[in-house]
Amino acid sequence: MTVPFLEIRSLTMRFGGLTAVDGLSFQVEHGAIHGLIGPNGAGKTTTFNIISGFYRPTAGQVRLRGEEISGLHMHEVARRGVVRTFQHSTLFAELTAMENAIVGTHMSFRPNIFAAIIGWDAEDRRGARARAEEALDFFGLLPLAGERAGDLSHGHQRALGMVVAMAAHPDIVLLDEPFTGMNPEETKRMMELMLKLRNSGVTILIVEHDMHAIMGLCDQITVMNFGRLLAEGTPKEVRTNLEVIEAYLGGARHVA
Amino acid sequence: MLLALPHGLSFSQQEILVFLTINVLLVASYRLLTLTGEWSLGHVVIMGVGAYASALYSKHFGVPVPVSMALGAGTAALIAMFLSYPLFRMKGFYFLIGSFAAGEIIRLLWKRFRDPFGGPKGLKRIEPMPDFDLGIWQFDFFEPVCYYYFALAVVAFCLWLMWRIERSHVGLTFHAVHWQDKLAEAAGVNVRAYRTLAFVIASGFAGLSGALLAHYIGTINPNSFDVEMMVFVLTWAIVGGTTTFYGPILGCIVLTILNEIVLREMGFEQARPLIYGLVLIASILFLPKGLESVVQRLVRPRAEKMEERP
User: Fold this and answer.
1) Do B103 and B205 fall within a single domain?
2) C-alpha distances in angstroms, A3 versus A7, A65, A66, A174, A238?
3) Residue B302 pLDDT greater than 70, yes or no
4) Does pLDDT of A252 surpass 70?
5) How many domains, chain B?
6) Where in the sequence is the domain holding B287, given as residue range(s)?
7) What is the dihedral of CA A213, A215, A216, A218, to 10 degrees?
């Protein structure tokens, strides 16, 4: 393939005097589960926020199928097929699980105010509902469709976050630390859901600082340290990379 | 019941009923604005924009009154759209202050320019609604009862429109923008466009309520739309509660009854702001979810039975 699916090209982000991301380049292949890891403060989340349109990069580009998407607003990036989730259980807590999923279908079934008043939106409403049900079912949340999102358990809330993303029909999902605060059981369940999502044709980019959690999951891993690319490759290659080991151990020594 | 209501009341009470009907529209439109989570302090001034615009159209351009009301509402919506560009660069508290400042600017413009706004004295002798002859029914809109029916019809239609909007997926998106604007944006919602949409629609309805008011009382001035009036609207919304459609309306009705009937009869008129303040504090302390929570508690057992049916 000549044009890479998602390409990050010499991305730089400065906050005042701090360079959070420094000339980072990597590529994500279509249909892969790609991990972006690194010790705390390596600039993973910043990179992630640039890709999803939350920040505008100081320099460099993000290209989706050759089209530049860096510098666009978040909703414009989303409309091009890049949908993100959030680190914590960020949901519409007051709405039901079903309504959360329906908001996710916003792009496919854009509500129209005049149609809504006259009542011509019945077909769109049915379509949005069907799509939302499908997404809920995919993650096994359909029995909980009527529950308030804020009342769901932590694991279910994280899954609902992915339901919202999936209802949006993305080409690539960006998952921001999906395993934080999960017990081993929930982590295992979440990994199964991710594989299922990937097998349905969605590319996944995961940011995670816990290296072990995603070793068994990812096809490709990019390791960052101090805003730069440290290593790249399959989990096996990365695990045996001396620089990576040193970066993590060094980080651990500081913590200890 | 609403149709029979005015006949048991005295003339001044009938007048209050007209104002109440108009205020219901105002407070309901205010709730539509708060759906996206932004509280404005300029809403009453926007109502005034509708009032001034409608009065001026009918006075200077000879536009028939019902049409000028619709145009007034449109003007209020248009002004809101222009205001939304600077205002929606801000959120939360800053938006609140910004909307207050924008409202004061508009009010000062009315005061400063004698032509066409009439300066501090405002506009007088605004065209009334033309009399209306429907064979057996003659509508003389100087009569509060007739104007009440007219306002009731208009307000009911507007409430229906707002209800439809809120129950649609547009309304759902408003809620989404309120609770988590970042997540909504990640799902492809143009958050700013939706904030603007809510602001513009709410302003249109507020403008219409202003136009209804202007052509009834026949005289308006910049002080009819000052902060004190805004505080009343806020009090209605807070005492009634804003999570349901009927909450603010309930607050408006209950407080108007308290205000006009109880207090006026008892001769406490001077102490009205004081008592409003006490009511506001008491309701925040004892009924933090507003009057609507009382209604919900009363209605819930029945609603749950309804839900059990498939």
Assistant:
1) yes
2) 9, 6, 6, 20, 25
3) no
4) no
5) 2
6) 226-310
7) 110
- The residue type of B58 is S
Give the tens place of pLDDT for each residue, B196-225.
999 999 999 999 999 999 988 888 888 888
Q: Is A53 left (phi over 0), alpha (psi -120 to 50) or beta?
A: left
Rounded distance, CA A162 to CA B232, Å?
43
Contact (CB<8Å) B187/A78: yes
According to the model, what pLDDT value does residue B167 have? 87
- Per-residue HEC secondary structure of chain B comes to CCCCHHHHCCHHHHHHHHHHHHHHHHHHHHHHHHCCCCCCCCHHHHHHHHHHHHHHHHHHCCCCHHHHHHHHHHHHHHHHHHHHHHHCCCCHHHHHHHHHHHHHHHHHHHHHCHHHHCHHHCECCCCCCCCEEECCEEECCCCHHHHHHHHHHHHHHHHHHHHHHHHCHHHHHHHHHHHCHHHHHHCCCCHHHHHHHHHHHHHHHHHHHHHHHHHHHCCECHHHHCHHHHHHHHHHHHHHCCCCCCHHHHHHHHHHHHHHHHHHHHCCHHHHHHHHHHHHHHHHHHCCCCHHHHHHHHHHHHHHHHHHCC
Of B164, B176, B185, the CB nearest to A117: B164
Domains of chain A: 1-81+172-256 (3.40.50.300), 93-169 (no CATH)
- The residues that bridge with A12 in the sheet, in sequence order, are A59
Contact between chains at B188 and A107 (C-beta distance less than 8 A): yes
Whether B183 sits inside 8 A of A125 (CB atoms) is no
Q: Over range B133-159, report the average pLDDT.
A: 81
Mutation to test the B interface, candidates A117, A158, A163, A166, most B Cβ within 10 Å: A117
User: Which of B204, B223, B242 lies at the terminal end of a domain, its last residue?
Assistant: B223
Cβ-count burial A28-63 (b if 16+ within 10 Å, e if not): beeebbbbbbbbeebbbbbbbbbbbbbbebeebbbb
On whether any CB of chain A is under 8 Å from the CB of B111, the answer is no
Domain end, chosen from B186, B206, B223, is at B223
> Which chain A residue shows the shortest CA-CA distance from B191?
A75
- Chain B residues within an 8 Å CB radius of A99: 172, 175
**Measuring CA to CA, which residue among A170, A137, A135, A140 is closest to residue A153?**
A140
Return the residue matching tokens 């944006």: B185
Which of A247, A220, A238 lies closest to A8, judged by CA? A220
Q: What angle do CA B161, B211, B88 make, to 5 degrees?
A: 65
Choose between A209 and B93: higher pLDDT.
Answer: B93
Within 8 A of A125 by CB-CB distance, chain B residues are 168-169
Neighbours of B47 (CB within 10 A): 34
Comparing C-alpha atoms, which of B301, B193, B296 is closest to residue B245? B296
What is chain B's length?
310
pTM of the entire structure?
0.86
Tokens linked to B105: 């600017």
Size (chain A), residues: 256
A73/B contact by beta carbon, under 8 A:
yes
